[in-house]
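Hey all, quick one. A colleague (J.T.) asked me to put the zinc ion job into the tracker so the inputs and the structure tokens live in one place instead of scattered across chat threads. No bug as far as I know, just bookkeeping. Sequence used:
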Amino acid sequence: MTTKTAKYTIKEFNEKYPDDDTCLDRIFEGRYPDGVPCPVCKKITKYYRKTGRKAYACEFCANQIYPTAGTIFHKSPTPLRSWFYAMFLMSATRCGISAKQLERELGVTYKTAWRMFKQIRSLMDERVKSMNGHIEVDETYIGGKHSGTPGRGAEGKTPVVGLIHREQGQVNATVTKDVKARTIMPIIWNNVPRSTENTIHTDEFATYNYVRKLGYSHGVVQHGKGIYAEGLNHVNTVEGFWSLVKRGINGVYHAVSPKYLQTYLNEYQFRYNHRKSETPMFDLMMNRMLALAVPPAGRLS
Ligand SMILES: [Zn+2]
């Protein structure tokens, strides 16, 4: 995997967001790019900043709005600048950083760092919908004492199923309770429309025998025979993603409890799926924050 992620340096970040005010302006402008439809006087208004407050007021009726309402920043005693800096740190590295590192960098308590970490990571929960064409599917086990050890039915490890859309290089990774067909097949048909035009590439694991019955074309690579690719038949892309995830867990987090494994996968998936994006990761996360804000811009109540 090559990473050509758009660079966003700490210098650029500091220049753009020197203080809490510039951060709040960014949220306000992001939520109301076309002006605020004032819920009181019903005019489309500019609203102006209330000095020293996290509020903006309507220039006609003085009604106030709080741009952080309904966002991850709402009611947080942590300064906005620290939130933005945490987002910058979590977006700036290829492998992410831990809550422990955030604690040190921000000079906040571990409890606060962990809360921010979880909230920011929630911005990276983004699923790829509807994969068509050539899709690799593979399961692996993560966690336990020997995270890197391949094998099925491993003790103390959590099963994970990954789908990779080969042409687009997009991944969906899901924590599952087991690797039985009744668990894995719904994950496949919820992501890939059932058609012989869609080819599911797997290894020879018996669970995948159902793929053809569901109406897909099935490309099988016989790992048991020491074959790792036969023309288009391979699962090398998804295996590359697994090694990235496992390296990350070992290097950054050391261990991940099964409870948080899905949010960890979401973070890796987000990075992977946007790795060729022209938009810096920080801005992608900011856009997600704006998209998830409730109520959305223009529907103030
Ligand atoms: Zn108004």
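Adding what we noticed when we looked at it: The chain has a mean pLDDT of 89. The first strand starts at residue 36 and ends at 37.
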